[in-house]
Design brief:
Blueprint: H1 9-12, H2 15-18, H3 31-40, E1 46-47, H4 60-68, E2 73-77, H5 83-96, E3 99-102, H6 121-129
Parallel strand pairs: 1-2, 2-3
């Protein structure tokens, strides 16, 4: 839109711009399979959106199983998490030796502000130590 190629975000994803419909097969791996793929690519597995719609974190057993399979971090600080959820998630991260990740979860202009919640520099450094797929761009 900013480059003037299309007039709106909707146009950018419309049939005219894309030249017609395209149907890509949807891959929905199990979480454990996704962890294996991420690790195999040199990435770091972090569990995003760990709270159920009622605000309760996923079960300790489920997250512990993921940690045993290579999960490195869990999203703790996020605009959708109230202080109680953050406290419980931070405790869970500590108990399972997972990195407490912060994220603004920005998904467009009508959502939270970019950078409203972030990962601390210390945790970010520890997160990078687990990665082997590429060199991060630092600004």
């Amino acid at each position: 839109v900013a480059a003037g190629i299309v007039s709106s975000v909707d146009d950018a994803f419309g049939r005219d711009w894309l030249g017609g419909p395209f149907h890509a097969p949807l891959w929905r791996p199990e979480v454990t399979e996704a962890l294996t793929v991420v690790r195999g690519a040199g990435g770091v597995g972090v569990l995003a959106h760990p709270c159920a719609p009622d605000g309760a974190p996923l079960s300790v057993e489920f997250v512990a199983d993921l940690a045993a399979r290579g999960l490195v971090g869990i999203e703790v600080d996020h605009p959708d998490h109230d202080e109680d959820a953050r406290r419980r998630l931070r405790y869970l991260a500590d108990e399972l030796t997972l990195l407490p990740i912060g994220s603004s979860g920005f998904h467009g202009p009508d959502t939270s502000r970019i950078g409203s919640d972030t990962t601390t520099p210390q945790v970010y450094t520890r997160l990078l130590a687990h990665a082997s797929g590429s060199t991060p761009i630092r600004g």
